[in-house]
């Protein structure tokens, strides 16, 4: 009888409303950011908007409802399969016949007519596996050999594959969100400090080995030294945000953002700032904050640890990715190429964002 009552409950209506607003507002921002690029490249100002709607929104909404109704018990049962499958897809990007490169990064996989980023799938599958693993190991988390070391090994294996692409931004998202879930489950503070030290060493080592990463770090420290070269994107982004002022220049007008690299990708927040000003920026931040508050509230009200850890992980992932994108394009951290959830162009990211949101909504039915 208890199971029947729980199944009859509805998903959190406030959370559903926030997802709807993020999706609608994201399409609105993308339409404004993409019309010039669409006109220049495809002679169709609505090209990118239509592509995002057909390949991202429609498939993503289908994924949302599948995740909303998928039995959480089966999600936990097959968590290892999901992780192994996504890691397998990730390794395929290094095969010349299947992998696609863009700007020196091997992040895309093409299988027949499908073109997607396996790293986006990995974000979600890793958190599903981690929630299941932590629930089964909760009593051992404070132990070094049976708790902390296996966690570090899992993160390291994923990190090696991502840094080979290279994809430091996605690795940072997985490492940070995974660490939050780990310590939510009861990990030691001393282990948290050790994770932070490992992260600093890994970041420093990566910068030392990868010239492009070192360049991005130097640009972050001295963007004004080469405003028309290495520092062009961040200077142009800050100019776009500054031009917007309080209310923006208008969604149909373009000034500085017309010369902005990746205006529909990781730079879309700067376009938002130029066209909608501080009001648009504040509204987008409010939506992400509301998503985080509601997501964590659902997690804390969950009746089982798997649901709790999974909701914490997915919420943290979206929040951290949003922060990294906004902070980078605002000059607070080095540029990473991380897209803005629900807003940047890219069907892979949007579909997985909506699937993750669907899982949180699914969990909310049982709180």
Automatic annotation (TrEMBL):
Its main location: membrane. Keywords: Cell shape, Glycosyltransferase, Membrane, Peptidoglycan synthesis, Transferase, Transmembrane, Transmembrane helix. It is a multi-pass membrane protein. The keyword Aminoacyl-tRNA synthetase does not apply. It is found in: Membrane. Pfam families: FTSW_RODA_SPOVE. InterPro entries: FtsW/RodA. Signal peptide: none annotated. One of its GO terms (cellular component) is cell division site. It catalyses: [GlcNAc-(1->4)-Mur2Ac(oyl-L-Ala-gamma-D-Glu-L-Lys-D-Ala-D-Ala)](n)-di-trans,octa-cis-undecaprenyl diphosphate + beta-D-GlcNAc-(1->4)-Mur2Ac(oyl-L-Ala-gamma-D-Glu-L-Lys-D-Ala-D-Ala)-di-trans,octa-cis-undecaprenyl diphosphate = [GlcNAc-(1->4)-Mur2Ac(oyl-L-Ala-gamma-D-Glu-L-Lys-D-Ala-D-Ala)](n+1)-di-trans,octa-cis-undecaprenyl diphosphate + di-trans,octa-cis-undecaprenyl diphosphate + H(+). GO terms for biological process: cell division; peptidoglycan biosynthetic process; regulation of cell shape. The chain crosses the membrane at residues 53-71, 78-96, 116-134, 146-162, 168-185, 192-213, 276-297, 309-333, 345-363. The keyword Metal-binding does not apply. It is an enzyme of class 2 (transferase). GO terms for molecular function: lipid-linked peptidoglycan transporter activity; peptidoglycan glycosyltransferase activity. Belongs to the SEDS family. FtsW subfamily. This is Probable peptidoglycan glycosyltransferase FtsW. It comes from Candidatus Azambacteria bacterium GW2011_GWA1_42_19.
């Amino acid at each position: 009888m208890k199971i029947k009552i729980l199944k009859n409950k509805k998903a959190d209506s406030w959370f559903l409303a926030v997802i709807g607003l993020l999706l609608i507002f994201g399409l609105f921002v993308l339409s404004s950011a993409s019309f010039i690029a669409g006109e220049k490249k495809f002679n169709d100002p609505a090209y990118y908007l239509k592509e995002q709607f057909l390949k991202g929104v429609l498939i993503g909404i289908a994924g949302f409802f599948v995740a909303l109704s998928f039995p959480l018990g089966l999600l936990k049962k097959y968590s290892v399969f999901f992780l192994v499958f996504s890691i397998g897809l990730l390794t395929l990007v290094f095969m010349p016949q299947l992998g696609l490169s863009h700007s020196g990064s091997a992040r895309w996989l093409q299988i027949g007519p499908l073109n997607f980023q396996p790293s986006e799938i990995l974000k979600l599958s890793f958190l599903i596996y981690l929630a299941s693993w932590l629930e089964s190991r909760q009593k051992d988390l404070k132990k070094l050999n049976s708790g902390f070391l296996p966690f570090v090994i899992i993160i390291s294996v994923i990190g090696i594959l991502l840094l080979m692409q290279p994809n430091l931004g996605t690795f940072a998202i997985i490492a940070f969100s995974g660490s939050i879930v780990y310590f939510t489950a009861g990990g030691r503070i001393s282990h948290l400090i050790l994770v932070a030290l490992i992260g600093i060493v890994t970041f420093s080592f990566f910068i030392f080995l990868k010239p492009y990463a070192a360049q991005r770090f130097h640009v972050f420290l001295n963007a004004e030294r080469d405003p028309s070269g290495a520092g062009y994107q961040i200077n142009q982004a800050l100019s776009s945000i500054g031009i917007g002022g309080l209310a923006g220049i208008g969604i149909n007008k373009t000034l500085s953002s017309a010369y902005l690299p990746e205006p529909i990708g990781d730079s879309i927040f700067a376009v938002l700032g130029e066209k909608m000003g501080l009001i648009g920026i504040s509204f987008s931040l409010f939506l992400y904050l509301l998503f985080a508050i509601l997501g964590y509230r659902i997690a804390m009200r969950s009746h089982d640890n798997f649901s709790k850890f999974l909701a914490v992980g997915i919420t943290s992932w979206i929040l951290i990715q949003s922060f990294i994108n906004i902070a980078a394009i605002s000059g607070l951290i080095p540029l990473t190429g991380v897209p803005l959830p629900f807003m940047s162009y890219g069907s892979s990211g949007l579909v997985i964002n909506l699937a993750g949101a669907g899982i949180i909504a699914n969990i909310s039915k049982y709180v």
